[in-house]
Design a protein that fits this description.
With 249 residues, the protein is mainly alpha-helical. It has nine helices and two strands, in the order ααααααββααα. A two-stranded antiparallel sheet has the order 1-2. A hairpin with a 2-residue loop joins strand 1 and strand 2. It starts with a helix and ends with a helix.
Length: 249
């Protein structure tokens, strides 16, 4: 479990730094700080090997998953990361003695004390459903050649012509809606509030229906909405299941 947690923290943390650190110097400094923090926490929790592996996984992710989702590897790094997280969570259960940090770690909850390894995994899950989830969705859309708005004129990418983006009007909240939606999916899934989860997902379709109904014969916007939403929900549900599995294993 600790290996999965560190890997998710490394990947999710790196993506947040890349997205929000505009200057190259600040980005490099924050990435180095993230590396130092992971290694320090790993050393203090008797998980130094897992921390080093996580740093290598994070570096491979940054190289293969550019922010514009045009890397040759497409969304396959996300698939490999999911497999790695699932296998390591299944094979490496929560440790009874997580080093120095474990001896001073106390985090109560309504269902009992949360262990250190489970807390690291939870942090990693929260980071992944943030910016990393957006990257995975964009990579999936690009891989399947799904129509989506671009910054300038239409162009060929992913095998099909992408239409030019309309002039922006009002609040552009797509990058915020995605992470909030995935966070709600994770929380509602773990809480067992499946009726609320179904209502939220249905409400999204209702809100988008007027836009989709104007799609015309191509069905491009409907395809964009369905592919993007389904991939986003799979990421969130997979993250929720991974955290539930790690806590209850």
């Amino acid at each position: 479990m600790i290996l999965a947690g560190f890997c998710l923290v490394a990947v999710g943390g790196a993506d947040l730094v890349r997205r929000f650190a505009a200057r190259r110097g600040a980005r490099i400094a924050l990435l180095l700080l993230l590396v130092v923090a992971i290694i320090a926490v790993g050393a203090l929790s008797d998980a130094g090997v897992s921390a080093v592996i996580a740093i290598a996984v994070g570096a491979a992710w940054v190289r293969s998953m550019p922010l514009d989702a045009t890397g040759r590897a497409s969304f396959w790094p996300a698939v490999l990361l999911g497999v790695l997280a699932a296998v390591s969570t299944a094979l490496i259960h929560e440790r009874d003695d997580p080093g120095l940090l474990g001896s001073i770690w106390r985090l109560p909850s309504p269902e009992g004390e949360i262990g250190f390894d489970a807390a690291v995994l939870a942090v990693g899950v929260l980071l992944i459903v943030a910016e990393s989830g957006n990257l995975i969705v964009r990579a999936a859309l690009d891989r399947e050649g799904t129509w989506r708005p671009v910054e300038s004129g239409g162009r060929f990418r992913g095998g099909q012509l992408r239409q030019p983006q309309q002039e922006a009007t009002g609040f552009q909240g797509g990058r915020l809606i995605g992470p909030l939606e995935r966070l709600l999916v994770v929380v509602l899934t773990l809480a067992g509030a499946y009726s609320l989860l179904a209502a939220m997902l249905a409400a999204k379709g209702i809100v988008r229906f007027p836009e989709i109904s104007k799609d015309g014969e191509t069905g491009a916007r409907a395809e964009y909405f369905l592919v993007g939403s389904l991939v986003s929900w799979v990421v969130a549900l997979g993250a929720a299941f991974l955290l539930w599995w790690g806590v209850h294993s």
